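Q: I'm writing up a methods section and want to include an example of the input and output format. Could you take the sequence below and give the corresponding predicted structure tokens, formatted cleanly so I can copy it straight into the document?
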Amino acid sequence: MTALIVEDMPQAAEALKNDLAHYCPEVEVAGMAGSIVAAARWLGQAVPDIIFLDILLGDGTGFDLLEIFPQLPSRIIFITASDEHAIRAFRYAAVDYLLKPVEPTLLKEAVERAKRQLSGTAESLHLLRETIRRPETLPSRISLSSQDRISVVEIDRIIRCESDGNNTWFMLAGGEKIFVTRTLKQFEQLLEKHDFIRVHQSHLVSLKFIHEFVKRDGGYLHLKNGEMVPVSVRKRAEVVALLENL
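A: Here is the clean output for your methods example:
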């Protein structure tokens, strides 16, 4: 696989190139660019399999480069400094990113996903751009990455999430189910501000889809789609208090 590194800090670019040579020998760094202009000039001559793209560059942002080449088939792996809002945006969009300094294990995992062509879709990249540009606004959509596709869904359609080992099932309004290769804990952190509550070790539920709390049989939620979801003893008081204040 060939790669282009777009990074305006020469030391960081060289470090990433060396890490790729050491930990991902199947990736050949075909070019390095320190600006949007230089990267655009390079991409006008060749198309790499992967682009390692810094978010903030001296003459613009990584999104500016993607707008110049909207049909670019390359898999994108973003590079960013440790910025809390940017990291949240990457997680909502299910787009691969690496924090500086790059950790070798995460680099290898990102390259493996790129091999399977599980990079962000145009829609998920649009979601990423909007989330980064509007830090004060909660995103209304989220990207869900399964083994073979990335789906962008409205958060208002999510009824509940259920843990399956290190993976998560999403149950959507209308009966659609999506199997996502990320842990329930990661989604709990993203969705808690959207009125989702962790009612059990294995269950995260949207408050808007709760019909009633049933006290018998240990306590469970009766959802508006007819499903029954158990409530753990530890979460019971919290669930009751939330429902009383709806």
